[in-house]
Write a structure and sequence with these properties.
heterotetramer, A alpha/beta (322), B mainly alpha (328), C mainly alpha (354), D alpha/beta (509), B: 328 residues, mainly alpha, ABC transporter involved in vitamin B12 uptake, BtuC, two-stranded antiparallel sheet, 15 helices, 4 strands, D: alpha/beta, Rossmann fold, 3 domains, 6-stranded mixed sheet, 17 helices, globular, binds magnesium ion
């Protein structure tokens, strides 16, 4: 059990998928909190690309960080395996690469992944939410972000796995469509799903933009009695839909905590206090103890599991939305 | 006397202006960030955008020809995804590369057919193929990311080949020299300018502008496919969104280089200078931790400023979009 | 048949052609998709096309003057966000000042584009390529990573686009669509009857001739951009009302979609000809195909874009070939009409030659 | 002496090194037709561009009603009642004729009424005496018709000063006469008309006063009856010149170079038949819209004919591309130099070698620029192109000098058959003679020339034979020896048809 010692100077970069999105800003707040707590005299940079240029931008920032000799890059990966060569190059230059929110699928170029939740269990949670909404049987469709979003794809895959269980035999996954994480595309896709499957019971959207747009679409068209919306969403955006029954249940984790934990992990590794070996444990400030373990979804890769996440419903959403 | 005056106008020309701008950027970067002038960084800054700048060279021809090709990014994506798909389905990677280049030629020929033979506006045709090629890339890889290419392929994009220089950079150098001679010194280049200046005049002088345009679009497709492969090799993986939106960056580079959007004006020297400016500027900003929208915004300002500044100060600048003289 | 074909104006013919293609598409999908042809389809398409129709209208005006506006997407995003922020801060604001604010905000961006294009004489594609990035950068700065959420918007605003003005059976005329139709028709009437607006056509048709004829080409081009900006602002307002959730990616990609709608609607990309009704139908056609493809079982999710690209190319090709044919037919007809007693003249020449 | 409506007061204008105008003064009175004459590049167009605010004088002033004014652009000038029609007509190709006329009018109301518009347009077109469908889209109009639209547009406004820069260059004699009547009528109504033309007989017909410009300098301004054509020409060129329209002896040989039989392009022209001999100059005459240009375009492979045969040097050929025609030795000098003839934004050098580029290329395709420059320089001297050097853009030259560059481009191809469409459109009397000499010289060396011209004196002076067309139909071929203006016009206007059995003479093998 390593108790991380603060005060060492190391420059670090927090690299989100792109700038201008609330949850990434929350992660930054968490990281800044940890940065202050650990008394790191170095710099914590929050830099990221634009939405249109996310992939190339992330690769560019990763490469630049290596050139600058940053101690660590904390990456919410939006480039899939395309970032692996530059991440490896960064590692070779002595920069630690800690991913959070979304890992490098192949695990190459990555020291450790700080997982917000267990990617296997998130599938079960989504399946469970669908189960409870549908009352055990009915049709479900998925409205995802883009076909390239690695974490969404992993979650959907794990949900498809979970659905094989006997408990969910009554649930039929009829379609997977993509809303490109844009409000208007997601909105139109959600309606097209309803038109395509007249018996659809729930739209599962593992993305905050998609779930909000679907809920709005169902509400606008007066379809909330027929088709429910669920998935991953922000309480502040979803509160009204949860209260009026359009989206009775959805889940999410705390991005502030995720940023906080990620910072601790990256700091430990960049200062050499953590070696990043399997089984290593450390105390991450206010959040308690964590252990580096094998990532079950990506053989050969390591992760730190933050967990748990919260399922929101009528009872707790209003409090969380404040 | 003529020599001397053309040298003088050369200094006051657009290229001269770009060159001065480049020097300023280099000096500022070198002064502000110690890592800037390292060989590794200089190679990196090229490497990071090498595919775009390669395509920008051909785009220079196309825009001088008074056309535009919006489908280059999508073609890069299609070629990379086709490679990934074939590789995943057990096709030999070498053969897959050849097939991808073939796809580039076919896609370019499709554009060329509609633009040259059917005489549809290239903006419209390539807007449609931008959507279509991207769609085909999606069809091939769906929601998968494909990786684990053969080592030689990855090395092509990532390992140094000649001294510290990677293959793509060498390819860029060779291509630049070849295209420079082609555009600036040969009859093909002259015809590119003439057709861009006034297509009817070219046709009436016995120049087959349709054939010329067709060739250019095929070349554009081919080079885009090649660049798509380079991209796949550099990042060692492909996905449906490879090179998404690259077309606008590429066009920005070409326009900043002084190539007139109305055709007939510009040069590869200008494009090269513009490449150096954009890359060094981006790199300098990145090293100063200025990224994201501010970077994009600065390039945007530069683009407008580059057209405005010479017009405000030196009205007789040789810039592309000089106001048209009314008929004498 | 040919006679009739020749008498109708090209614009009217083009619109008829578009309507015909629309019907074909609807008929085709009704054989492919169960439960396709009903009021619901109308409601879906009509409400989803409203925003693009406004943007395409503005884009058409700009294209008519031989320019292009690639910044509309960013303008929509920014105005949607700014309007959302405003109404969140002052929830008591009424509809009129809010709409005005959105339009003025959009027009402001249009002024920047217009000034650079018309007065500084920077080609529009360069200006708007740059301002597309700049305006979105401004949005990222301005939004400070906060999103607007529908919860914070007044109820009248959120429910406005779907307010049913008129219901006939399953068919509903909703406020959002009604606004779009009114704007399109209004702009159409202006463009075809209002003298100063005819100058958009003149300037696009031949900028040099316009200059020589004493038309203030700069003011005309400037006005086109301001109008397009104002319409994009209005679209931003509608975007806010309809989706409620505004982030920094709002309106991303609208620029190319609006160009596609105009072009499919028969607006000449080189300026001088086209109608906003055409662009409106073009927007509907693109939207209809896009939505229908999602519902078509035969085509997987991943084929949609490929098919859409092919269809755009097809419709533009057919339109162009048709118009060319028509032009040739007309020419031939005029020649016939103008020929001086052709038979007699021909005979005499032959006799002379014999 | 009444105050002049508009005057130039010691105006100078230079473009970089070129002094287009130096210290030119001129007065314009109400109700007069004031002609400006001078050689190509003398500065006529520059003068009127200063009057209409397109250019600002480098020094000196423009005065309207005696007040010095700054004309910021054509709009300001128009607001002051100064309207110009330029050498190259400018219409809006996408708008119909009626709208073309009224688009910039400030007199109409806010909303346009189609019927009203058509009626007014009709009235104006009638006043000019053109037959023109006002609903027609302008993209299909010929140069002359475009010119008519521009004149109508000018007439639709409250003009005080109407400037016409070579308005009749593109018009046939009939239409030109019509136009002159219009100009006279306007002058009688009190408008001052500035009239620029290279056709001196026109000047004498309508002008009240004539100003002669040479090399950017004001030479003289005189009432018309105090001047003679010869005196005027002497002032223009600064020397005595002989008779331009002297009939040159024919150099025609019996050898047929080009044989055309029943050439037809559906919907455009039909059954054109003639033989063209080496050494011969065959002129095609006709009114505007006679479709002569279309015949030429077919012979050059641009608009391939749909029927009939063409034999070249005794062998039947099918001409489908310009390249093919050029390889045979056929050159076509277009009538529309701005749109089809010259790349205006490129240097003279590049334009001169445009049609013969492959000759300057090495095996690897590299262009020999020095050789190009040498060629261009040679033509500059031979054709007397007025320019300091061949590296400047063609667009900077005056109309006449542009014409010579275009000719240089085709002469450099060393063609055997030269099709010359409106060879002297918009060029001055000195240059005209030079062009005529060049054509005759070309023929004398064994080449064949097909000249399309709307300038009747020119046709009569140059042609060995004259083929007259009318609206796509060959009306007949006249021998120059027994042709005169009346006979040609009679055919061109369709009053008579030819009976001369000349089309099939000398059947080609
Ligand atoms: N925009 C310009 N830039 C540079 N030189 C110019 C420009 N416009 C005209 N010139 C030069 O000014 C001189 C006068 O030209 P201008 O067009 O006035 O002649 P012009 O008398 O109208 O001749 P033409 O009868 O051939 O039309 C010429 O030498 C011409 O090359
Ligand atoms: N009614 C028309 N509609 C469309 N285009 C026309 C028409 N008449 C002529 N043209 C085009 O205008 C150009 C010149 O016309 P045309 O050949 O009829 O005239 P022309 O006999 O050469 O007379 P000129 O050369 O004196 O104008 C050609 O390219 C022709 O195709
Ligand atoms: Mg002139
Ligand atoms: Mg002609």
């Amino acid at each position: 059990q390593t108790a991380l010692e603060g005060g060492q100077e190391v420059d670090m970069v927090l690299l989100p998928k792109f700038l201008g999105i609330l949850v990434f800003d929350q992660a930054n707040e968490g990281a800044q909190e940890a940065h202050a707590e650990l008394g790191n005299p170095g710099e914590l940079l929050f830099v990221g690309p634009t939405p249109e240029n996310s992939v190339a931008g992330q690769i560019e920032i990763m490469t630049t960080s290596a050139t600058q000799g940053q101690g660590a890059v904390m990456l919410s990966n939006n480039a899939g395996d395309q970032i692996a060569p530059s991440a490896k190059a960064a590692q070779d230059a002595g920069t630690k690469v800690v991913t959070w929110d979304s890992p490098i699928p192949s695990g190459e170029g990555e020291d450790v992944f700080v997982a917000q939740v267990d990617f296997g269990s998130i599938g079960t949670v989504m399946a469970d939410m669908a189960h409870s909404i549908l009352g055990g049987s009915g049709q479900m469709a998925v409205l995802s972000a883009t076909p390239d979003a690695a974490n969404q794809n992993a979650w959907i895959a794990s949900m498809q796995d979970a659905l094989k269980g006997d408990k969910y035999s009554g649930i039929e996954l009829v379609d997977i469509v993509y809303g490109d994480d844009q409000a208007e595309v997601s909105y139109n896709r959600a309606l097209a799903l309803v038109d395509k499957y007249p018996d659809l019971g729930v739209i599962m959207s593992p993305t905050t933009v998609g779930i909000q747009a679907s809920a709005k679409a169902m509400q606008d068209e007066g379809l909330c009695d027929q088709v429910k919306v669920s998935g991953l969403g922000l309480p502040a955006e979803m509160v009204s839909y949860t209260m009026n029954g359009c989206a009775p249940e959805f889940a999410l984790w705390d991005f502030r905590d995720l940023g906080y934990l990620t910072y601790y992990t990256a700091y430990g590794m960049a200062t050499g206090q953590l070696t990043g070996e399997l089984g290593e444990s450390f105390t991450a400030g206010r959040m308690g103890d964590y252990t580096i373990e094998e990532d079950p979804g990506r053989p050969g890769s390591k992760r730190i599991l933050m967990g748990p996440f919260t399922v929101y419903n009528k009872d707790n959403v209003e409090a969380a939305a404040q | 006397m003529t020599r001397l005056s053309s040298f003088a106008t050369g200094l006051r020309s657009w290229e001269g202006f770009l060159f001065a701008a480049l020097l300023v950027i280099l000096a500022v970067n070198a002064a502000l960030t110690p890592e800037f002038l390292t060989v590794a960084n200089q190679i990196n800054l090229f490497q990071l955008s090498i595919e775009k700048v390669i395509v920008a060279l051909v785009m220079t021809f196309i825009i001088i020809n008074a056309e535009i090709d919006l489908s280059v990014g999508a073609m890069m994506g299609l070629s990379a995804c086709a490679f990934g798909w074939m590789f995943q389905n057990g096709v030999d990677a070498r053969l897959a590369c050849l097939v991808c280049l073939g796809i580039g030629i076919a896609g370019g020929a499709l554009n060329g057919y509609f633009i040259a033979a059917m005489a549809l506006p290239s903006l419209v045709v390539t807007l449609a193929t931008l959507i279509g090629f991207r769609g085909l890339a999606r069809v091939l890889v769906e929601d998968r990311g494909i990786t684990d290419f053969p080592d030689w392929f990855d090395a092509l994009g990532q390992a140094p080949m000649l001294g510290p220089l990677p293959f793509a950079l060498i390819a860029f150098g060779v291509l630049f020299v070849f295209l420079y001679v082609l555009l600036q010194k040969t009859g093909f280049g002259r015809r590119t300018y003439v057709i861009g200046t006034n297509r009817d005049v070219a046709d009436f002088a016995g120049i087959d502008s349709r054939r010329h345009k067709f060739i250019l679009f095929v070349a554009s497709g081919l080079i885009s496919a090649f660049a798509g492969l380079l991209y796949a090799a550099r990042v060692g993986a492909v996905r449906g969104d490879v090179a998404l939106g690259f077309e606008l960056d590429i066009i920005t580079i070409v326009l900043l280089g002084g190539v007139s959007i109305f055709g007939g004006k510009g040069s590869l020297t200008g494009t090269l200078l513009s490449i150096l400016i954009v890359l060094n500027l981006r790199n300098g900003m990145a090293l100063m931790n200025i990224t994201g929208h501010i970077q994009t915004g600065v390039i945007g300002l530069l683009l407008i400023g580059s057209v405005l500044a010479p017009r405000l100060r030196l009205p007789r600048f040789n810039r592309a979009a000089k106001p048209k003289e009314v008929s004498p | 048949m040919t006679r009739l074909f020749l008498r109708v104006s090209p614009q009217a013919l083009r619109i008829t052609g578009l309507l015909f293609v629309l019907c074909l598409v609807v008929l085709f999908f009704s054989t492919q998709v169960d439960n396709y042809l009903n009021g619901r389809l109308f409601n879906r398409i009509s409400s989803s096309v409203a925003i693009m129709a406004l943007i395409a209208t503005g884009q058409t005006i700009v294209i008519l003057t031989r320019n292009i506006d690639l910044s509309v997407g960013s303008v929509v995003g920014f105005t949607a966000f700014a309007t959302g922020s405003l109404v969140t801060a002052y929830p008591d604001m009424g509809p009129v000042p809010l709409v005005l604010f959105a339009m003025v905000c959009g027009a402001g961006f249009g002024c920047i584009n217009g000034a650079l294009v018309a007065y500084a004489r920077v080609p529009s594609i360069i200006v708007t390529l740059a301002t597309m990035a700049l305006f979105r950068s401004a949005l990222v700065e301005f939004s400070d990573a906060k999103s607007i959420t529908s919860g914070s918007l007044p109820q009248w605003l959120v429910s406005f686009p779907n307010t049913k003005l008129l219901t006939i059976g399953q068919f509903q005329l909703r406020a959002g669509f009604a606004v779009a139709v009114v704007v399109v028709v209004l702009v159409h009437i202006l463009l075809s009857r209002f003298r100063p607006a005819r100058r958009f056509y003149a300037v696009g048709s031949s900028p040099e001739a316009a200059e020589m004829a004493g038309i203030n080409t700069r003011a005309t081009v400037f006005a086109a951009f301001v109008l397009a900006g104002a319409l994009a602002g209005l679209a931003g307002f509608m975007f806010l009302a309809r989706f409620g959730n505004i982030t920094v990616v709002a309106g991303l990609g609208f620029e190319l979609k609006s160009v596609a709608a105009s072009v499919v609607g028969g607006v000449n990309i080189f300026g001088g000809s086209g109608t906003v009704i055409g662009a409106f139908l073009g927007a509907i056609l693109v939207d209809l195909i896009d939505t229908s493809l999602v519902r078509w079982q035969l085509v997987s999710e991943f084929w949609r874009e490929a098919v859409l690209g092919a269809l755009i190319l097809l419709s533009v090709t057919v339109d162009t070939l048709l118009m060319r044919r028509l032009f040739r037919l007309r020419q031939a007809q005029e020649h016939e009409a103008a020929k001086p007693k052709p038979a007699a003249a021909g005979k005499v020449t032959k006799e002379g030659a014999a | 002496m009444p105050e002049p409506v508009l005057s130039l007061d010691h105006v100078s204008k230079s473009f970089g090194m070129t002094h287009a105008l130096s210290d030119v003064s001129m007065d314009l009175h109400a109700g007069e037709v004031h002609a400006i004459v001078g050689e190509n590049g003398a500065g006529k167009s520059t003068m009127i561009k200063i009057m209409t605010g397109i250019h600002q004088p480098s020094s000196g002033a423009v005065r309207i009603d005696g007040d010095a004014v700054t004309l910021a652009g054509p709009q300001t000038a128009r607001d002051r009642g100064v309207v110009a029609i330029y050498q190259e007509p400018m219409v809006f190709p996408d708008l119909d004729v009626a709208e073309n006329i009224f688009i910039s009018s400030t007199k109409e109301g806010w909303f346009q009424n189609r019927r009203d518009l058509r009626r007014k347009a009709h009235a104006l077109i009638d006043r000019i005496g053109m037959a023109l469908d006002v609903d027609q889209v302008a993209s299909g109009l010929t140069l002359a018709e475009q010119q008519a639209v521009e004149i109508a547009r000018a007439l639709s406004q409250d003009v005080r000063v109407l400037i016409m820069d070579e308005p009749t260059a593109a018009l046939s004699a009939h239409e030109a006469a019509q136009l002159r009547r219009v100009a006279r009528t306007l002058a009688e109504e009190g408008v001052s008309v500035v009239y620029i033309s290279h056709r001196l007989e026109e000047v004498f017909e309508i002008a009240d006063r004539v100003t002669v410009i040479r090399d950017g300098q004001h030479i003289s301004t005189r009432p018309i009856d105090e001047t003679t054509p010869d005196g005027m020409i002497a002032e223009m060129v600064g020397r005595e010149v002989g008779n331009y329209f002297e009939k040159a002896p024919t150099t025609a040989t019996p050898e047929v170079l080009l044989g055309v039989r029943d050439l037809t392009l559906d919907g455009t022209y039909e059954n054109i038949s003639f033989d063209l001999h080496r050494g011969e100059v065959l002129c095609m005459a006709g009114l505007i819209g006679a479709r002569r240009t279309d015949v030429a375009l077919s012979l050059f492979g641009i608009a391939p004919a749909t029927g009939g045969t063409v034999t070249y040097k005794g062998a039947e050929v099918r001409l489908t591309t310009p390249r093919q025609a050029m390889d045979l030795g056929i050159a076509y000098v277009s009538e529309d130099r701005r749109k089809l003839g010259l790349a205006m934004e490129m240097p003279i050098r590049d334009n001169v070698t445009l049609a013969t580029l492959s000759r300057y290329q090495s095996r690897a395709g590299i262009i020999d620029r020095a050789a190009e420059a040498e060629t261009a320089e040679a033509y500059r001297q031979r054709l007397n192109i007025r320019t300091p050097d061949v590296e400047i853009d063609v667009g900077m030259l005056s109309g006449g000098n542009q014409q010579k560059v275009m000719l240089a481009k085709w002469l450099n191809m060393e063609p055997e058959l030269l099709i010359f469409d409106e060879p002297t459109r918009g060029i001055d009397i000195g240059a005209k003679a030079e062009v005529h000499d060049l054509i005759r010289d070309f023929a004398a060396k064994g080449g064949a020339v097909l000249v399309i011209s709307s300038d009747l004196p020119e046709v009569l002076a140059m042609g060995d034979r004259i083929l007259v067309m009318r609206e796509g139909v060959q009306m007949g071929i006249l021998d120059a020896a027994d042709a005169d203006q009346e006979k040609v016009m009679a055919l061109a206007t369709g009053q008579v048809r030819s009976t001369a059995p000349d089309a099939r003479e000398g059947e080609p093998a």
